[in-house]
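Lab meeting, item 3. Inverse folding demo.
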């Protein structure tokens, strides 16, 4: 039985099926995203959404959707589904759905009278191209299929309205047409693997609405151009393949291309395989190197997010070469910025002060996979360079103080992952000594000591690092550990921030923590009581007056709420590490039980993946970006650690 399979009863119930989304990418920045019933519910949904570097670094929707119509005995049965003004759904093609299965590729099964038709979608890796395979499984009479493309040709974050600037012309190509609605865009090629008839029937399909955007308090109504329709007969047992791409293709190769693409797929038959498949969807391969996208459908490559996601999305799924390629790309970009002040064209936020600290943490996870010798040979020099950059105050907005701690100014601009702002000003102005910055700094110093521990010519340097790390440890405890047994979130001069936030969980979850076991346990106990949820770690304690558990409302309301309660799954990775450090192997059972909460999400939200955040109160609904790399990565890293620790426990029992 498929792990991601939804039957007729769920599919025809729009209240249950519309909130469920699916995502496929080409691992080069393009994607296909919609609901499992094929009804677009947010402006970023589309069948073929691609980056256009010649225009900007944003995603652009060319083909919004494709409506299929089954014709028998002259009677049309439209399988499409759209939402229009007045909350009208038409043409209600979902009522013909009998099953949706997403084990290998998204597969829809329709029944229209005696007709059984399947539809399978495959996004071709590293090409701006999607293939859709239709197979007529059952039919008792002659059957014809029609296909109406809904075209957008717009930025994924904009909306299209009826206009006179549009270029309505189409030109014939092999078994299809090519068209380009606006100057600056590439042509869209729509082709079939057999001869097809094209009928010009250009018109605007008006007043489509996207209820997800309406709920977010942003514009949500759109007009899309439908240039006409394709028509072709299909026999029982026959398969036809539709291709949409930004370049002409040979119809005779469609079948072989489709089959070759299937071989590389990870069947989503388990929790782990779902996340593994999802992790690879974030990969981004470009001429300048390899990266990890922060999330879909609206994020690009963000420095901190990539570093947090990297170990889980590569090492935890045995993609060592991909880790090395991505880290090499990142290190080169970071070095250009530190040395020459040149920001990267692909990686945003590389100028933030904690980026070198997170870089060292990501490399540290490589050591856990490959061992100390391999890590030293591959990245020892890079880690040393970054540590010395910090010690010599060469990192933007990061200062080393006499007490060994690092300080940063976040008054005017957010410097940490708590980055919400209004009017250009941070909502949470974390400045001075920031708890996770300094925990990561202590961890980095101890990690570098371990790299050089058995290198004779580095012993003087190791002693120097040891003296500094001892100073950092003493200062950290003195500055951050309060009389209540938990850690201040930040300390700025005489001001100590008393809010109970999850950054202290990072501090106790690192391999080298400045706190001893007793101190870590006190912090962990408080985090468990006030921050732990089945979907991640709350961004603020419910006891705070500012606690806002649900991420809903207008853009301003959501910006104010985003870090004042909603839970983040990626923080559970650090919580799990801390829990095992405190309770040892006896804590494995609890971590395994907590992981069940994330497995439940495989059939919710974006199926097979994890949302950006979850409401901090029951029922813990997913919000924000539908699929987020650092959440997927850290849960994968936790699963990998649990598997390895269970093996260790078994060997000890034997």
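The presenter then showed the designed sequence:
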């Amino acid at each position: 039985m498929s792990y991601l399979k939804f039957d007729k009863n769920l599919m025809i119930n729009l209240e249950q099926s519309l909130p469920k989304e699916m995502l496929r990418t080409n691992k080069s920045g393009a994607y296909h995203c919609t609901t499992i019933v094929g009804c677009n519910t947010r402006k970023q949904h589309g069948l073929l959404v691609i980056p256009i570097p010649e225009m900007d670094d944003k995603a652009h929707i060319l083909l919004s959707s494709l409506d299929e119509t089954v014709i028998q005995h002259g009677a049309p049965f439209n399988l499409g589904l759209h939402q229009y003004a007045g909350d009208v759904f038409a043409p209600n093609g979902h009522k013909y759905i009998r099953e949706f299965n997403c084990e290998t590729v998204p597969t829809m099964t329709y029944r229209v009278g005696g007709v059984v038709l399947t539809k399978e979608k495959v996004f071709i890796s590293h090409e701006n191209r999607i293939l859709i395979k239709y197979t007529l499984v059952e039919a008792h009479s002659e059957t014809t299929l029609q296909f109406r493309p809904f075209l957008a040709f717009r930025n994924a974050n904009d909306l299209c309205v009826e206009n006179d600037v549009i270029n309505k012309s189409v030109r014939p190509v092999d078994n299809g047409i090519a068209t380009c609605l606006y100057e600056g865009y590439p042509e869209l090629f729509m082709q079939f693997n057999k001869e097809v008839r094209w009928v010009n029937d250009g018109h605007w399909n008006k007043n489509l609405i996207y209820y997800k955007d309406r709920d977010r308090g942003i514009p949500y109504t759109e007009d899309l151009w439908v240039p006409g329709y394709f028509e072709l007969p299909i026999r029982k047992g026959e398969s036809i393949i539709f291709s949409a791409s930004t370049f002409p293709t040979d119809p005779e190769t469609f079948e072989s291309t489709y089959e070759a693409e299937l071989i590389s797929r990870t069947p989503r038959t388990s929790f782990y395989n779902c996340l593994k498949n999802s992790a690879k969807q974030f990969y981004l391969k470009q001429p300048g190197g390899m990266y990890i996208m922060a999330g879909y459908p609206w994020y690009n490559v963000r420095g901190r997010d990539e570093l947090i996601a990297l170990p889980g999305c590569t090492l935890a799924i045995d993609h060592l070469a991909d880790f090395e390629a991505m880290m090499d790309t990142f290190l080169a970009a970071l070095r250009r910025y530190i040395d020459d002040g040149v920001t990267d064209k692909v990686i945003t936020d590389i100028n933030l002060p904690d980026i070198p600290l997170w870089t060292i943490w990501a490399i540290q996870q490589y050591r856990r996979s490959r061992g100390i010798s391999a890590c030293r040979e591959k990245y020892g020099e890079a880690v040393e360079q970054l540590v010395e950059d910090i010690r010599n105050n060469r990192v933007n907005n990061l200062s080393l103080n006499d007490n060994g701690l690092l300080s940063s100014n976040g008054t005017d601009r957010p410097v940490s992952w708590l980055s919400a702002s209004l009017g250009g000003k941070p909502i949470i102005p974390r400045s001075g000594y920031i708890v996770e910055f300094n925990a990561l700094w202590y961890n980095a110093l101890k990690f570098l000591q371990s790299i050089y521990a058995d290198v004779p010519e580095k012993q003087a340097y190791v002693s120097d690092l040891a003296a500094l790390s001892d100073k950092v440890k003493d200062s950290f405890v003195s500055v951050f550990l309060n009389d209540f047994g938990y850690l201040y979130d930040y300390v700025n001069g005489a001001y100590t921030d008393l809010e109970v936030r999850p950054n202290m969980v990072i501090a106790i979850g690192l391999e080298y923590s400045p706190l001893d076991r007793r101190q870590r346990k006190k912090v962990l106990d408080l985090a468990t009581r006030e921050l732990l949820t089945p979907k991640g770690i709350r961004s603020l304690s419910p006891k705070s007056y500012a606690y806002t558990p649900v991420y809903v409302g207008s853009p301003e309301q959501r910006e104010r709420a985003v870090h004042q309660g909603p839970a983040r799954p990626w923080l559970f990775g650090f919580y799990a590490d801390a829990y095992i450090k405190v309770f040892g192997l006896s804590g494995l059972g609890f971590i395994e039980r907590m992981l069940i909460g994330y497995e439940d999400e495989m059939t919710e939200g974006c199926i097979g993946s994890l949302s950006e955040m979850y409401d901090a109160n029951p029922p813990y609904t997913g919000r924000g970006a539908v699929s987020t790399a650092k959440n997927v990565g850290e849960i994968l890293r936790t699963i990998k650690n649990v598997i390895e620790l269970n093996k260790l426990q078994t060997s000890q029992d034997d």
